[in-house]
Design a protein that fits this description.
five-stranded mixed sheet; 10 strands; alpha/beta; globular
């Protein structure tokens, strides 16, 4: 068995590239996940059979200390020394572009962007996480939705529906965001409320706002370095708002060449061809 894993903050998809067997476990961002949770998820995956090697692409794996920690836990759990741990950004690049160069963005629970030269991430802007960054992500969209709801900016017809879907008191909202774990996942879970109502003018403008802020905080900083105008996107938010994304990027002189909701199939193809 040869495993490929794509891990975001919300979920991790594992595929055996030889059999095609697939399993989904919890998100395994090492900045928020302890060793016990890692080993529990790995135990679920072990049910697929004996593993010869693992290619793990994960959010939060850009930090060398955390990358080594994840590699150590993978080796311990799967009883193999053939383990590669890379960032989810490199995973997105390999899934979307393979050996072709281009701008690559992730718009899921979190967000990121880089220039991929066909082999490696050759240019990127520092990721500042879900508090300072994550522009364009589900977390960002959910955060703005909740803010507008709590301060009374959200149109009343939508606010009433929002309250029905999410019947929390003010104190419960504050506790969930500021005192409970995985606030980024929780905020991202609010984003589908706007995505499903993308034809509503308020929701459409809010989505355009978060995408525009992603462009300004990420892509706009990469363009002078690369001159590249071809963009490949990965992630559930990117796929859900693809027409709006293409419209916005076209106005900025960028061609969206491809959008993948889930990069894992592209990663399997990448590794099968090696």
């Amino acid at each position: 068995m040869i495993l490929v894993a794509d891990s975001g903050s919300t979920s991790t998809t594992w595929v055996d590239i030889l059999s095609g067997n697939k399993i989904v476990t919890a998100g395994l961002n090492p900045h928020f996940t302890d060793d016990t949770a890692f080993m529990s998820a790995f135990a679920e995956v072990s049910s697929l059979g004996h593993c010869d090697r693992v290619f793990f692409y994960g959010a939060g794996c850009g930090d060398e200390v955390q990358r080594m920690r994840v590699a150590r836990l993978l080796k311990k759990s799967f009883h193999t020394d053939i383990v590669a741990v890379e960032t989810d950004l490199l995973g997105a690049c390999r899934a979307a572009c393979a050996d072709h160069a281009g701008l690559v963005g992730i718009l899921g629970t979190g967000s990121n962007a880089c220039f991929y030269d066909g082999h490696d991430v050759a240019g990127r802007v520092a990721s500042t996480g879900y508090v300072l960054g994550d522009h364009g992500s589900g977390n960002h969209l959910g955060r703005l939705l909740l803010h507008d709801y709590l301060v009374g900016v959200m149109p009343s017809r939508l606010a009433e529906l929002f309250q029905t879907v999410f019947p929390y008191s003010y104190s419960e909202w504050m506790d969930r965001v500021y005192h409970q774990p995985h606030a980024n996942r929780f905020l991202a879970s609010l984003a589908p409320f706007a995505v499903r109502r993308i034809d509503d003018e308020y929701c459409k403008q809010l989505i355009l706002r978060v995408l525009d802020e992603w462009f300004d905080s990420q892509l706009a900083l990469l363009l002078p370095q690369t001159g590249c105008r071809e963009l490949y996107l990965v992630g559930g938010i990117a796929a859900a708002v693809e027409p709006l994304l293409k419209y916005l990027m076209k106005g900025k002189g960028i061609e969206v060449r491809g959008v993948l909701a889930d990069p894992v199939d592209g990663l399997c193809n990448y590794h099968m061809s090696r």
